[in-house]
Amino acid sequence: MGFSSALQGRASHEALLSRQDCELRLMDTIRRCLQLRVRCDREYAAGLGQVVAQAQKWERAEDMAGSLIAQAWSTMMDETESLSRLMRANAETLATTVIDKLNALATEKRASRKIYQDEQARMALEITRYQESVSKLKAEYEKNLEVYKIAKARYEDQYVKGKAGRKLEEVKERYVKACRRLHNAHNEYVLLLLEASQYERDFRTVLLPALLEYQQLVQEDMIERWCAIMRSAAELTSFSTEKHLEIQSRVNGSISAITTDGEYREFTDRHKSQPPPPVSFLFDYQMVEEYSGRLKPEALAVDDLTIGNLRMRLADLETRLADVRTVLAEKRKQLSQHDAEVECLKKQQDSVNRLFVIRRASEILRKDIRETQCTEQKLQRLTKLIRTPLDELGGADAPKAVEDMGDMAGSSLTLSSKSHHRLANMIRKPFPFHRRPSPASSPTGAGPTGSPSPPVSSDALDDSLASLESGEERDGAPRSPAAAADTAEDSVTASQPSEGYQTMSPQPERPLVDEDWFHGVLPREEVVRLLVNDGDYLVRQTTRNDETQVVLSVAWGGHKHFIVQTTSDGQFRFEGPSFPTIQELISYQHECGLAVTNKSGAVLRQAILRERWELNNDDVELLEKIGRGNFGDVYKARLQLTSELVAVKTCKVTLPDEQKRKFLQEGRILKQYDHPNIVRFIGIAVQKQPIMIVMELVPGGSLLSYLRSKQHGSSLDVGAQLAMCRDTAAGMAYLEEKNCIHRDLAARNCLVGMHNMVKISDFGMSREEEEYIVSDGMKQIPIKWTAPEALNYGKYTSLCDVWSYGILAWEIFSRGQSPYSGLSNTKAREMIDSGYRMPAPDGTPDAMYRLMLRCWEYQPENRPHFAEIFTQVNGLFMGVAGPDVLHN
Ligand code: ADP
Predict the structure, then answer these.
(1) Is 744 a catalytic residue?
(2) Ligand 1 centre distance from Cα of residue 645 (Å)
(3) Phi then psi for 303, rounded to 5 degrees?
(4) Which CATH number is 361's domain given?
């Protein structure tokens, strides 16, 4: 049953219209949902992209080559990327093709509804009109009939009464007229009725059914298209299309390829090596050769002096052996239980986890058993070594070890007395260091003023040796007073009689900071850089647990750092004698040529003096605050020595050491550069807090403020803007040549000097590397200035600086506007990824804008290097300003 036969009634008509309205609303809902779905899928695709980016941060080490796990992971990530691309492409097709089709369909449906409604209304109106016309004609018919009846009655009346003549004629005439009218009305009525009933029949049998049939065809055609749209939408949002299945099957395939024996095959092939050569523990025959007693190589000395000890060792070994055997038996039992359980579990399908656990436990047990077997064998052999001679002795007394003490000269006792003698000798001799103070290469000469250390007894010395042998080397902290005594013992041979050093007159005390070899709070990295040759040393200050400590740093097969110890009576020492001042201690240590600690063996040879750039804080007079940096305020200042005006960056005293180190990093980097477009480094002042970086004062301040200022920014012409771009390109080309990546190039980090000359500053994030991979997250990254590969993979090269340079040039031509203004960082990033680039600011020369676009090439290798940028910008500048002009 179709529309044409079933839906003719009024109610059906209303229902059909209402149905179409509902369909339109459904289409609208579908459209909205698909739009949302597009957004979801795009976000999901972007999320997958981030997953892949995260995965790409993993550095593929060569050692993982051939790893099946790594290959599977790599496939998984590659396929995640494919999935991301597929989802993005599907989302785009959904957004364009499918939703557009749905919109077109809705428009068409609306139109067809209107046609149907209008057409139906027109037909209905026609019927109504006929009805009205019929009623009107009928009324007229009735009226004419009335008039006719009256006229006829009058005529009959006159006629019957026998009237004749004019009167009768008149009545007759009226009668005939009424009769004509009636007949005409009758005819009209008949004709209209025929016409109306014909139309009415046509309406019911032809017109309305045809309209409904047409409507049905149109609707059905639309349903077919609607269905196609739904099919496309379903396919584009499906996770199980053939492409998806292919992706998943590639992932599954790579995982199935993992085999436990294949995983390390390539690795073991590549790293195959010979097993370590056996270390031989052989008895040194020389030792017994020098000994005149009964000791024999590789045999135990069983005599009256050792027998007690040997018996005790034997008893102990036997107990241990028994214990080990018990443990071994227990472990073997456990292993056989595990093995039995494994056999059982293998038959059960659902016990994979337990099987894994038990297998693992069995492996551990097997390893333990092998190890315990080794211990057992070792104990067995030791036991045998002792038991055999004891058994051989039987019940007899052990032979005497020492027949005659007089024959024992040269034994170990002699060594002890020798040490004692050397120590005593050392105490008597003066220190040789104080007579030749050498300001250039050695610290200010001064000797200890206290009396010499009391003689150390032979026993005390032995104890101290023992404690040294077992002690761990800590940076400079002497392990015990006894350890200090040991250091003194080594110096014996070089010593002079003690009266010598008692005659020394102490130097007048002066602050440590005045010593050229005192480097204040210079960070360890710097120290390490300064100490090159073995014996190079300097003194510095550090804070540990809120306590200020003075540290002696020495190059000695690496770098050793010794904390100066303070004695209970306020003197200073390492392991040797103590002195009233650190200068005297260091002087002593330098002059006497003894190791600072026995274990380190580090000897002081060459004092490393403060470098030209290590300024004294008191030499820097802060005048006025001119800015605020990340670590503290920036001041205009004067250098006392030269009266030069400088800029000084200070570091807040309260910042933790780690931050202070970061602060100084900028100075360390800047120190090496010398270029007119790089802010000049003058020095650092780290003798005390606040620590400072001193650099040339660049009078115009930050480039960003300069560009934004009414006074300067608005008066900049193209020539001046090009000159600024040229200056920064020159500075950056210099940095690129030096393998320095700035990482934060932006107008806010450039300064404007005399004649508008731009100088690059703020090297706080810079790195001296060809490529720098950030691993500690991407905190505080200037997103809108940073190249995509740095944001996505943390990979920085000079070509990232080139990207930032493009933004900086844009800032210069826009007179300090914010890039991507109105866009959040995330949005800007998203738009860049999808190809968006900022338009040229008004007045930017075309060539300059083209250069900006090249700087913003997505692939770093497509960007120009700074040398090329400089040549181009310089050419542009020359074109505008003329060849004679250096700075506008
Ligand atoms: P930070 O790197 O710690 O953030 P900046 O280098 O940005 O510090 O310096 C902060 C402000 O101090 C700059 O914007 C600028 O106004 C001023 N400034 C910094 N260095 C100098 C300098 N050498 N000459 C003149 N002003 C400077």
Answers:
(1) yes
(2) 15
(3) -145, -175
(4) 1.10.287.160
Which of 41, 486, 744, 801 does the annotation list as catalytic?
Answer: 744
| Same-domain check for residues 185 and 202 | yes
Task: State whether the beta carbon of 647 lies less than 6 angstroms from ligand 1.
Answer: yes
Residues 645 and 719 in one domain: no
Q: Are residues 17 and 105 both part of a single domain?
A: yes
- Can you give the pLDDT at residue 712? 84
Q: Whose CA is nearest to atom 4 of ligand 1?
A: 629
663 Cα nearest atom in ligand 1? 3
Mutate to test the pocket of ligand 1, among 646, 702, 743, 780 (most ligand atoms within 8 A of CB): 702
Q: State the Cα–Cα distance between residues 407 and 393, nearest whole angstrom.
A: 26
Residues 206 and 167 in one domain: yes
Residue finishing a domain among 605, 637, 662 = 605
DSSP state of 96: I
Over the chain (888 residues), what is each successive 10-residue block's mean pLDDT? 89 95 96 96 94 85 85 94 95 94 96 94 94 95 94 91 87 93 94 95 93 95 96 94 94 93 87 80 71 73 87 90 92 90 82 82 89 91 90 82 50 33 30 31 36 32 28 35 32 30 43 84 82 93 78 92 88 87 90 87 90 84 91 92 91 83 84 92 87 93 93 88 96 93 93 93 75 58 92 89 97 96 91 94 95 96 96 91 49
Q: For residues 677 and 798, give the distance between their C-alpha atoms in angstroms, rounded to a whole number.
A: 17
pLDDT of the residue at 125: 95
Assess whether the C-beta atom of 564 lies below 6 angstroms from ligand 1.
no
| 788 CA from centroid of ligand 1 (Å) | 27
**Which protein residue's CA is at the shortest distance from atom 12 of ligand 1?**
627
Range of the domain at 689: 614-696
Q: Are residues 645 and 687 in the same domain?
A: yes
Q: Which amino acid is at 174?
A: R
**Cα three-residue angle 233-234-240, rounded to 5 degrees:** 135
CATH code of the domain covering residue 665: 3.30.200.20
The answer to whether residues 310 and 395 belong to one domain is yes
- At 505 the pLDDT is 36
Which of 547, 574, 605 is a domain's end point?
Answer: 605
| Element of type H or E holding 352 | helix 352-393
430 within domain boundaries: no
CA of 628 to the centre of ligand 1 (A): 7
CATH at residue 568:
3.30.505.10
What gap in Å lies between CA 424 and CA 608, rounded to an integer? 34
Determine if ligand 1 sits within 6 Å of the CB of residue 764.
yes
Ligand 1 centroid – CA 680 distance (Å) = 13
The count of structural domains within the chain is 5
Beta bridge pairs of residue 566? 572
Q: Smallest Cα–Cα separation from 673: which of 733, 632, 714?
A: 733
Provide the 3-class DSSP secondary structure of residue 782: coil
